[in-house]
Design goal:
The chain is mainly beta. Helix content is 5%, strand content 38%. The protein contains 2 helices and 32 strands. A hairpin with a 4-residue loop joins β2 and β3.
């Protein structure tokens, strides 16, 4: 009977102590009521037991009790250095471009290299494109089967553009980079016709426009230049500021014997000189008339007031050597006079078919002279002068074959120093020579 009572009392105590194991992924928290219950944290490998109303860690949650003697490292990409570490040290893996490229050698066709360093087959999406639309400036859409998209107005550049430099159209859709003269990015605009040599004026809108006057060394203003006044483009001379056509030394050649004569350039004018000598000897520089009909010249004749010295412009017939000229000369009374004179040669005077008074009409630098040859059968030649560069007066006119055998084919400017007196040299300054 005593034995049976002991068994009955012991069984409830055993039942309260062995209530089993609870499994989970977190640690237990708070008080516990069942003494001896076990709780397992499968995630962290811990085992807890309820004792005296609280959980007590029985196992897990700490490091092992061993000693690390060596740590090594290996990889299939790169070069490892510092392995193994047996005390202290650094493990390093160095990867080169060639090693990365080598990973792709095993891939082929449409395969791609995955993050796992392995080749994988490309699997495109399963959708179907039914229409591709385009918007300007792209054209060609919508494309529902096959087609081509294009951009006729898109701009392309074969090279990179340079900062702050202008861009110019290079044809088709290409552009090219230009240069700039200064250091700003501002653009100057213009309007109207631009004339080379003219100064720039700025209008009320900020446009750079043609000022209408030339820019010479005086900055676009009229200034004196040797025998002329000029705006840098146009040349004027005489009291009426008549426009001049500058003569060119390279245009002329000797039509008669040169002798002691010489032609030199002085500024933009030509000076023809000869030394004094007894007897007539016309020293003429000229050129072919060609298809022109009119010669207008302005000149000055520099000589002592001595009989027979003269300056002239005239016609010449090359086949016969005959000359007929508008002559500014000193008379036997030592008075300046304008004549028309004929010459069978440069040294043989013939006649004076016309003259404009014994007192002289003008000095050459105060007016201009014009000779005209109108072709025809037989054609005409005319000798004129002007005092105001506007109104022309005809001194003489005749048929082209009245003196010439056929007609003149050359015109010239000339000097004649027919005097043996000391210091009787002569100079002719040719300011303007205009043929039309």
């Amino acid at each position: 009977m005593k034995y049976l009572l002991f068994f009955v009392l012991l069984c409830p105590a055993l039942a309260q102590l062995q209530t089993g194991v609870q499994y989970g992924n977190v640690d237990p928290a708070g008080p516990c009521g069942a003494r001896g219950i076990l709780v397992s944290n499968n995630l962290l490998g811990k085992l807890w037991q309820c004792k005296a109303g609280a959980y007590t860690l029985l196992a897990g949650g700490g490091g092992g009790g061993g000693t690390v003697t060596s740590v090594g490292f290996s990889t299939n990409l790169g070069t490892v250095s510092g392995s193994p570490v047996t005390t202290t040290g650094t493990l390093t893996n160095t990867v080169t471009g060639a090693q990365v490229v080598s990973l792709f050698t095993g891939c082929s066709g449409t395969q791609y290299l995955g993050a796992d360093a392995a080749c994988h087959n490309y699997s495109p999406g399963s959708g179907t494109v039914t229409s591709i639309a385009t918007t300007l400036p792209i054209t060609g859409g919508p494309i529902t089967t096959t087609g081509t998209i294009a951009c006729a107005t898109c701009v392309t550049s074969a090279a990179a553009l340079t900062s702050n430099l202008p861009v110019f159209g290079a044809g088709s859709q290409d552009v090219s980079v230009g240069t700039r003269s200064g250091n700003t990015t501002e653009v100057v605009t213009t309007t109207g016709t631009q004339t080379s040599g003219h100064c720039v004026n700025i209008d009320a809108n900020g446009n750079h426009v043609d000022s209408g006057i030339g820019c010479g060394s005086a900055g676009g203003f009229i200034y004196v230049n040797g025998w002329y006044i000029t705006d840098g483009t146009n040349y004027y001379s005489g009291p009426h500021h008549a426009p001049m056509t500058l003569p060119s030394a390279g245009s002329f050649s000797w039509l008669t014997t040169q002798g002691s004569a010489a032609e030199t350039a002085n500024g933009n004018a030509l000076i023809l000189t000869t030394t004094h000598a007894a007897g007539d000897n016309i020293r003429a520089r000229g050129l072919s008339i060609g298809g022109n009909t009119t010669l207008t010249a302005q000149f000055a004749c520099t000589t002592r007031v001595i009989n027979s010295n003269s300056c002239a412009i005239g016609f010449r017939e090359s086949a016969t050597g005959k000359l007929e000229q508008l002559t500014f000369e000193m008379t036997t009374a030592n008075i300046a006079r304008l004549d028309v004179t004929r010459w069978t040669s440069a040294t043989a005077f013939s006649t004076t078919p016309a003259q404009d008074g014994a007192g002289g009409v003008l000095t050459p630098e105060w007016g201009a002279f014009r000779i005209t040859y109108v072709t025809g059968s037989p054609g005409t030649i005319t000798f004129q002068y002007t005092k105001d560069d506007t109104t022309w007066q005809t001194l003489y006119s005749e048929n082209a074959n009245a003196f010439f055998t056929t007609a003149p084919d050359q015109w010239y400017y000339a000097v004649n120093a027919n005097n043996s007196t000391t210091n009787a040299d002569i100079a002719m300054t040719l300011y303007s020579w205009k043929v039309q």
